[in-house]
From TrEMBL:
This is 5'-nucleotidase C-terminal domain-containing protein. SUPFAM superfamilies: 5'-nucleotidase (syn. UDP-sugar hydrolase), C-terminal domain, Metallo-dependent phosphatases. Residues 24-244 form the Calcineurin-like phosphoesterase domain. The lineage of its organism: Bacteria, Pseudomonadati, Pseudomonadota, Alphaproteobacteria, Rhodobacterales. It holds the Pfam family 5_nucleotid_C. Residues 1-20 form the signal peptide. Gene3D superfamilies: 3.60.21.10, 5'-Nucleotidase, C-terminal domain (3.90.780.10). Residues 328-488 form the 5'-Nucleotidase C-terminal domain. Belongs to the 5'-nucleotidase family. GO terms for molecular function: hydrolase activity, acting on ester bonds; metal ion binding; nucleotide binding. Keywords: Hydrolase, Metal-binding, Nucleotide-binding, Signal. One of its GO terms (biological process) is nucleotide catabolic process.
Amino acid sequence: MSKLLFTAAGLALTAGMASADYTLTILHTNDIHSRVESINRFDSTCNADGEAEGKCFGGMARIKTAVDAKRSELAGSNYVVLDAGDPFQGSLFYTTYKGAAEAEFMEAIGYDVMAVGNHEFDDGPEGLEAFVDTVSFPVISGNLDLTSEPALNGKVSNHVVLNVGGQKIGIISALAVDTVETSSPGENVVFQDEIESLKADVAALEAEGVNKIIALNHVGLAKDLEIAAAVPGIDVVVGGHSHTLLSNTSDRAAGAYPTMVGAVPVVQAYAYSKYLGELTVTFDDAGNVTSAMGEPILLDASVTPDAAMAARIAEMGAPIEEMKQRVVAETAEAVEGAREFCRTGECAMGNLVADAMLDRVKDQGISIAIQNGGGLRASIDAGEVTMGEVLTVLPFQNTLSTFYVSGQTVIDALENGVSQVEEVKGRFPQVAGLKFTWDASVAAGEGRIQEVMVMEGGEFVAIDPAKTYGLVSNNYVRGGGDGYKMFRDADNAYDYGPDLADVTAEYLAKVGPYTPYTDGRIAQK
């Protein structure tokens, strides 16, 4: 792929100088998660009233407007437009169109490169293949061995070199190796160590004379910081996966934008199409970063959605609008489902979903519910609840699974669930029918779970490791997703129950108006 941004003035300036600093602006998004339409403050789909009141953010049409504006502003300068993965999964647009909508709108926005995210495998390698075949920009991931996967072999490159203003810009990438647990890449996609893979790709690019290298990763901020320190030759890291807001102005920011690791700037721009990252980097003639500065652009109501794209989104949304707008329940207060809460401790959305699961199957001898926090993708605001809102919270079309395991297996499952809290991983267990205490000061896997109590005869009693318990979860967790491999060999497993979103909607309707709550069922020492 060639990207040429020369102007006559730029050519004359370059010709007249033996060496000069080179400035590049990186516009970037990550973890859009099918937020094709605009979102509300809870990161779920915004409605027409919210748009009219100026309360909506993001959406593909706002990204289009913002990128186009930056292109005009940067005319004659050097820039690239990058995405760090996970445009898939998270709204009815993905449920309905399986990546075709995301492909169409990302193509129209005009991305230069996209990294593969874990959710690009949610419909197997074939789902990613269809996307790659549709878009004209390269989709890359350097630590995937795809030689045995016919759907993707030769279609996803390790890296790409862009020609921007007469300079070679190398883009490399790594995808989190636990994608085998968080999605469905299949047995033919082989994952290699992120750091070793990136080192190899840096060496390959440097051998081609490329001295400006951007790592466009989907591994999460913690791993990005590790990579920035461990892989010589990487000049900039543009990340995704952890949905981290890095900013110098927001009070919700997890760190500075950019966060510097030595001379390497690391950036990420939250998720759900809410921000467009903008980093301006200056390199000396040897390719060393001499300055890096910027700030994510909040795509709020001050950014007018691109009219043509908004019209096309409305057209594609028409077949699903009726179902989205159907009111199914009512809540007395907003139900908190943000990842920073549901992946680190008890959260109101986790209680709602776990309670709903257990309520559906309690007459089947099932007494415990476990829902992975990563399966909860949004909050719900107060008032009327539409089916579209419920599906935004639970977009994965997971089905209810019932099965039987020992008390020790339950303890092992909870141990897995709290093993990666520091990385805000999706395996954190939201529960019903039991309560547990865990200790973050204990090493992961070494007994963080301190106490587990189960409900029996109307009161909580200590779990019996030797006793058999009936559990309900979703089919993803029962099948070993998010590290819950101990459930794969469960007894009497049935994975084909009703859709979890339908179960939750029907429970809300049954008990409504629903008042969200937490009750201490998960405690941290």
